[in-house]
Predict the 3D structure of the following.
Amino acid sequence: MTLRVVIADDHPITLMGVRAVLKSQSALKIVGEAQSVETLLDLLHQQPCELLVTDLNMPCDRQMDGLRLIQRLRRYYPDMAIVVVTMLDNPTLTAQLLKMNISGLVSKRGLLNDLPKAINHRGEQPFMSPSIQQLLSVSHDSSQQLHKLTAREVEVLRLIGSGLSVSMIAQHLCRSKQTISTQKISAMRKLGVDTAAALFTHIKACGLA
C-alpha cells in the first residue's frame, strides 16, 4: 500500500532534504508541500494523506506555536501519522510533544538516518532520534516534575519565562486574563512554589526560559 505524504518546513534546504529521503522510500508518495502553518492547514483540508512530516516552528499569522499546531492536527486528523522534524533542544517541550500521539520525533541533525526509521517504526512508543533520547535522559528529573502539568500550563510557564506578563500572555494566546492567571496558579501549586521569584527560578532550571 502506498502512503500519501505531506511535508512541511519553512526552510527550503530542510524541505529539500526531507523530500530526497522520502523519495527513496518506494512505499511513499509525496502529495503536497507547505512552508507555513496556514499553507499546511489549507493543504490538509484539501488533500487527504496518511502521513505528515512537519517542522515544529513555522511562520504563522494565527498566534499558533508548535505545540498548539500539533494539538490542532491531532484533533482534526486523529488517524494521520505525524513525524516531527525539529532542531528542538528543550526537554520540557519534547516531553509534551511525546504526549500528543505523534509517530516520531526526528532531529534535523540526523535527518538522513533517522527519518526512514521514524516512518517505518511500528513500536508502541514514538520513535526518537538518539540525540533526543539523550536529551531526555539528562533532564529526566526536571521533566518528571513537569509531567504533572498540562500542555497549556507548560505553555503559560514558557511564555512567563520569555518575559511576558499574564496580560500579555492572555493577549498572545487569545485567552482571558483570568484563565491565564488560573493556569499559572495551578502550575505553581503542582510544582510546590509560592512566589513569582521561586516560579521563575524553577522555570529557568527546567529549561523553559
